[in-house]
Design brief:
One of its GO terms (biological process) is carbohydrate transport. The chain is an alpha+beta fold. It folds into two domains: 227 residues, Rossmann fold (3-Layer(aba) Sandwich), CATH 3.40.50.300; 110 residues, OB fold (Dihydrolipoamide Acetyltransferase, E2P) (Beta Barrel). The protein has eight helices and 20 strands. The strands form four sheets. Strands 6-7-8-3-9-10 form a six-stranded mixed sheet, with helices on both faces. It is globular and about 75 Å long.
Length: 354
């Protein structure tokens, strides 16, 4: 396993500056997830690490060596693409060993690696099959195995599960996490799926428009988002945003809510009063008989083990998660309360956390 360092990285494609002055340190052995919407530059960044595209500025270091202009074959990486890209006329075994055979790896060593990885990925009974005889999940495991047999320093994953159905994604996500625990390899994973990011990552890098918005553990990024974009991007349903005023006594007031926030920990530079946006996750809103605030049920979404209930709260609509199975009627008036211990406050002008 190896670390990866990106210093002042710039990427220009067809005259468009996709990424500029980006700095990122990936520690040896960690599972780092690049998360963001389509077009944010996460796959472009991954391809630059792999050497598939040239950078315009800055440097790429792998295991302490400058690899900025090195050929992809010299970078000691294994890469898994969104497309399986398997050779249809070759067996699973031949697909997995293709790169090793091209590099003239001894047959005994090829067999050792193939058998080791096939057992790890539960592919041993499938080694003689061709891709057409495999399911989508099996094909993706073959693509992952093709990267693993390289025994590389760093493994790169470019949205490898996005073409699979929900159940297969869940199964392979679990297998990838177990695989990382077993190999302890450095892995960099690109996705727009927040569930994948939250469940797989040791650290998440949230990106937007070619810039890093926040880096942290899944818990930190989810519970203490640094700006409105991160707060709104993570979470399903997304964080509720309530516009209001914070008075000098640290009381938040909107058209339907008034609550004491004197225990809120402000950033050192944050204003202590004025117009603010209060962010609260749906699970931090509880519908209960002794609730402080009044809302009207607008929509109910049954989710099996819980319900998502949408409430009209004054001029705004908020979502909350109800874990017990209780009936709600559209237009029903309910009482609810907000857990102020995990709320977030944002500056509406800068959109940064206060």
């Amino acid at each position: 396993m190896a670390n990866v360092r990106l210093q002042n990285l710039g990427i220009n494609l067809s005259g468009n500056q996709i990424i500029s002055e980006l700095n990122l340190a990936v520690e040896a052995g960690e599972f780092l997830v690049l998360l963001g919407p389509s077009g944010c530059g996460k796959s472009t960044l991954l391809h630059a690490i792999a050497g598939l595209i040239d950078v315009s500025d800055g440097s790429v270091e792998i295991a302490g060596q400058d690899m900025t202009w090195a050929d992809p074959s010299e970078r000691q990486i294994g890469m898994v693409f969104q497309s399986y890209a398997l050779y249809p006329t070759m067996s699973v075994e031949k697909n997995m060993s293709f790169g090793l055979r091209i590099n003239r790896t001894p047959k005994a060593e090829i067999d050792r690696r193939i058998n080791k990885v096939a057992e790890m990925l539960h592919l041993t009974p499938l080694l003689k099959r061709k891709p057409a005889a495999l399911s989508g999940g099996q094909r993706q495991r073959v693509a992952i195995g093709r990267a693993l047999v390289r025994e590389a320093e760093v493994f790169l994953f470019d949205e490898p599960l996005s073409n699979l159905d929900a159940k297969l994604r869940t199964n392979l996500r679990r297998e990838l996490k177990l695989l990382h625990q077993q190999l302890q390899s450095t892995m960099i994973y690109v996705t727009h799926d927040q569930v994948e990011a939250m469940t797989l990552a040791t650290r998440i890098v949230v990106m937007q428009a070619g810039k890093i918005q926040q880096i942290g553990t899944p818990e930190c990024v989810y519970e203490r988002p640094l700006n409105l974009f991160v707060a709104g991007f993570l979470g399903a349903p997304a964080m509720n945003f309530l516009h209001g005023q914070l008075d000098p006594q640290q009381r938040f007031v909107s058209n339907s809510i008034s609550m004491d926030l004197s225990s809120y920990a402000f950033a050192a530079s944050g204003p202590q009063n004025g117009e603010v946006i209060l962010g609260v996750r749906p699970e931090q809103i509880q519908i209960r008989d002794e609730g402080q605030f009044v809302g009207t049920v607008a929509l109910v979404e049954p989710m099996g083990n819980h319900q998502v209930v949408w409430l009209h709260a004054g001029a705004q609509t908020i979502s909350c998660i109800v874990n017990e199975q209780r009936p709600f009627a559209i237009g029903q008036t309910v009482l609810y309360s907000i857990d102020t211990r995990k709320i977030s406050l944002f500056d509406p002008k800068t959109e940064q956390r206060l």
